[in-house]
Design goal:
By secondary structure, the chain is an alpha/beta fold. The protein has 9 helices and 11 strands. A hairpin with a 4-residue loop joins strand 1 and strand 2. Belongs to the ATP-dependent AMP-binding enzyme family.
């Protein structure tokens, strides 16, 4: 769907992140998502692995969601307001192998909260976390240029793809099936602990299409809709239809 959108709207803006000052075209979305996907494969992630995304709205959230899909990973959305107990629960519930997270937001320091869950992070080499409390988690990627212990910087993963991982990524595009799991959303947990709901590629695209029809959205050059990155991901699926 991203490729189809690029063919139709390549140089048109797909995303504007006002607070970051980022303006990203459909073509740039594909390029950035492919680079990140290759980097994720390079650090050892494989199709079917679960990649957590713990962040507020930002352009990196948007790019990461498409990168995970291109690499055949299952993206797990984690509420950015979660504290360490909820974070630990989510990691273990779905068996996250890697986590992409924000640096800070208001009073929330994501690295500190994760360190409360896994004290081993402070002494771990990036990509080699060995935690007693969250044993499945091996790699942590932070949207920052700070040198934080135990983690990769987001931009380093963007640049990490080798020739081999780029080739593997290209080969994967014909192997990913529409009925395969694409993303996991946790329920609110109002009647108990949050439940992990798995959505397929087909479900996400189909829902996006009918949401677009219900909202009577049509893509026009120069038109814009103000929405969170979660919604903009949905609407840009609509653009390809």
């Amino acid at each position: 769907m991203v490729d189809q959108s690029v063919e139709k709207f390549g140089d048109i803006e797909a995303l504007v992140s006002v607070q970051q000052g980022h303006r990203i075209t459909f073509q740039q979305v594909r390029e950035k998502a492919a680079r990140l996907a290759a980097g994720l494969l390079e650090i050892g992630l494989k199709p079917g692995d679960r990649l957590g995304l713990w962040s507020t709205n930002c352009s990196e959230w948007y790019i990461t969601s498409f990168a995970a899909a291109r690499a055949g990973l299952t993206l797990v959305n984690i509420n950015p307001a979660y504290q360490s107990p909820e974070l630990k629960y989510c990691i273990n519930k779905v068996g996250l192998k890697a986590l992409v997270m924000a640096d800070t937001f208001k009073t929330q320091n994501f690295h500190q909260l994760l360190s409360q869950v896994s004290p081993e992070l402070s002494k771990a080499r990036p990509g080699q976390l060995n935690s007693e409390s969250v044993p499945s988690l091996k790699s942590v990627i932070v949207m920052t240029n700070k040198n934080l212990p135990g983690v990769f910087q987001y931009e380093d993963i963007m640049d990490a793809g080798s020739k081999e991982s780029i080739i593997r990524l290209a080969e994967l595009q014909d192997k990913i099936q529409s009925d395969q799991g694409c993303t996991i959303h946790f329920t609110s947990g109002t009647t108990g602990t949050p439940k992990a709901a798995l959505l397929s590629h087909h479900t996400l695209v189909n829902n996006s299409y009918y949401i677009g029809k219900w909202m009577n959205l049509k893509h026009k050059v120069g038109s814009s809709s103000h929405m969170t990155s979660h919604w903009s991901r949905v609407i840009n699926h609509c653009s390809a239809r």
